[in-house]
Specification:
binds cobalamin, elongated, 4-stranded antiparallel sheet, alpha+beta, 40% helix, 9 strands, Leucine-rich Repeat Variant, binds iron/sulfur cluster, 378 residues
Length: 378
């Protein structure tokens, strides 16, 4: 067995579901990435457009001196929401990937172990670097070229036997690309357009990229500040992230049933009781979600998202918690979301709360939302 075969075999032992080789040359769809940026579809993720990172995305060779080939790797996770028994619309949802401890460090350690195990058996060890969404790399494009799957209409990399519920990681090496490197997989979406129809904000573009400005995953995870009021209803019950364009996908549904992934001891439930969670303090948030992807939203973003979901659920039991946040939160972002949510719940007891708050509110954006809520009630 040569180093390439050894790495692929060892990757399988370490739990990677897919692996494939690709050269460290310019990714095939780099121009699509730049036109996506030019269209402003990256929303507030300005780090994606930084010139130094653009150069690395275009030339993966810059990621490591002497880089020649890249082993693209997929690591699976369970997409619980495909299972109707755990689908609880009265709760708020957390995207499946975020129920596991943060994947960046865990996956990098596993790829590192892979490289070390194989290198220890080789006469002439190879040089390498390990990446998992930790550097400017077009991970899906490279994975597509490495034969790990096709890019679906929902923009995700999909494999006929493994669906799309997997993370991507890369081992950049100075090994010459193997002569029989993998071929890209052909498109299996056919005439299906389920994901475009399932996307609550219709932000999936025909060229298989996403308009992040309207994507619930972006808005609930990455976006800081107020979420535009016209998008709040579409957020529905998504507290953190969104899997709607994947849980509707026939390839995800089919493969999820047959997937056997060991139960993770540390996995969080994908469904949370919004009402009780609204009272979470910043300290409690940190201790509960430290080390999990949810921490990325920060406490302010998380409470904002919960308030929006409570409004969408029109749950009268949330009135007390939302009123408390409106009257005493230091964060205008939380106050705006709470005011909007109270307006959505719209029971008689909400009106005096909003009226008395209006005279105290000094943030103009929040004032607009409180007034709109009161108008709706009258
Ligand atoms: C920014 C980002 C986001 C943004 C923007 C997403 C987007 N679709 O652009 C937001 C916050 C919205 C997001 C959401 C999610 N993300 Co994200 N995200 C990234 C990140 C950091 C960069 C992606 C990027 O550059 N986007 C810009 C677009 C233009 O590039 P792209 O999506 O990679 O598409 C390229 C190729 O697919 C190809 N391509 C595009 N269209 C077509 C069409 C054809 C026919 C072909 C052949 C190729 C092709 O060209 C593009 C440019 O190279 C990557 C990690 C990384 N470094 O790559 C993770 C990553 C893409 N995310 C990931 C995940 C898991 C998610 C979520 C599922 C999380 C969630 N549940 O909420 C959602 C999925 C939303 C979706 N439908 O894409 C995984 C994807 C795994 C997979 N199986 O595809 C990645 C790879 C992280 C990882 N290491 O595992 N994400
Ligand atoms: S993650 Fe949600 S909002 Fe974003 S493209 Fe997919 S379905 Fe649409
Ligand atoms: S839902 Fe249909 S169109 Fe969308 S990614 Fe899956 S197979 Fe492709």
């Amino acid at each position: 067995m040569d180093a390439f075969e050894q790495l692929k075999a060892e990757a399988e032992h370490l739990g990677f579901s897919l692996s494939g080789w690709v050269s460290a040359a310019r990714p095939a769809h780099f121009d699509l990435f730049t036109s996506w940026l030019a269209g402003g579809f990256h929303a507030g993720m300005s780090y994606l457009a930084r010139p130094d990172t653009l150069a690395k995305r275009e030339h993966p060779l810059l990621l490591m001196e002497g880089a020649r080939s890249i082993l693209s790797l997929a690591y699976p996770y369970q997409m619980q929401a495909c299972d109707s028994t755990v689908n609880k619309p009265e709760y708020g949802s957390i995207a499946a990937y975020a129920c596991l401890p943060d994947y960046h460090g865990r996956l990098a350690a596993r790829v590192e172990e892979l490289a070390q195990r194989v290198n220890s058996q080789l006469e002439k060890p190879f040089h390498y670097r390990v990446f998992t969404d930790s550097a400017p790399i077009l991970e899906r494009d490279l994975a597509w070229q490495a034969g790990l799957g096709w890019v679906g209409r929902n923009g995700c990399l999909i494999h006929a036997q493994h669906g799309s519920a997997f993370f991507l990681a890369e081992l950049v090496t100075d090994l010459e690309l193997p002569p029989a490197a993998s071929e890209p997989v052909t498109d299996h979406c056919g005439n299906c357009r389920r994901c475009l129809e399932a996307c609550p904000t219709r932000c999936i573009r025909e060229d298989r990229t996403i308009d992040a400005r309207h994507c619930i995953s972006y808005l609930t995870i990455e976006h800081r500040g107020h979420i535009p009021v016209d998008l709040l209803s579409a957020i529905n019950t998504h507290v953190f992230g969104c899997d709607d364009c994947q849980t509707c996908c026939p390839w995800v549904i089919k493969t999820n049933r047959s997937k056997s992934i060991p139960e993770e001891e540390m996995a969080l439930a994908g469904y949370i009781d919004v009402c009780s969670e609204l009272g979470l303090t910043e300290t409690e948030f940190k201790s509960h979600f430290g080390g999990y992807p949810v921490a990325r939203a920060r406490w302010e973003g998380y409470i904002r998202n919960l308030a929006i979901v409570a409004g969408n659920q029109r749950d009268a039991n949330a009135i007390d918690a939302l009123s408390g946040l409106l009257s005493s939160s230091q964060s205008a972002v939380i106050r705006l979301a709470s005011a909007w949510a109270l307006g959505q719940i719209g029971t008689a007891s909400v009106q005096p709360v909003l009226e008395s708050h209006l005279s105290e509110e000094n943030d103009p954006d929040v004032q607009v939302v409180v007034r709109a809520a009161l108008e709706k009630l009258n």
